[in-house]
Write the structure tokens for this entry.
Amino acid sequence: MTTPSPQRARSAAAKQQRERAILDAARSLGARRSVREVTLTDIAAAVGMHKSAMLRYFETREQIFLALTAEGWEDWSAALRARLGELPEGDADAVAAVLAQSLVERPFFCDLLAQAPLNLERNVSLESVYEFKTVTLWEVAAVGGELCRLLAIGERAAVDVIATATSMAGALLQMAAPGTRLRAFYETRPELAHALVDVEPQLTRILTALLNGMRSAQA
């Protein structure tokens, strides 16, 4: 069976539709499997395109997933700021819990957060990196503003909190290895119980300690 060969998108609108289809296919595959396991060939097959044709829209598979990471930052930031807006000022424990929960609710985004600095940013053009960082830094500033308002911490401290939350969420998810043979193996060996990472409680504890420590240092 040969792979369908759809006509090349010629209008700007058609090109955007094709790019959206590619991104949606990559998101679906990445959500079901680890991002690092999804190949450009997998995405092309899901869209019904030849791999070479996809290169007209994205330079590499990493560019596809980096674009999805940027979208993940926008989605997470908007949802998190809405939830932070409902919290009383000064409650560091509540802020830590909301931060942790908002990330754990997005396992695909957490997977992308782990992959972005390790390989996604390193296998795209500098222009693509610039576009990604521009989106990310804007969202960091937006979330940071809410943290400064709620907890009376400085801008630098707020950035450190966001960096800790997102990097630890990505790392802890990889360590937890949900839905994998490795996780099942850990679960059958009592002597390896320490390897069973429960992401949300652990991330909440880390962020609670960090936020309370920052507030104490400023008191």
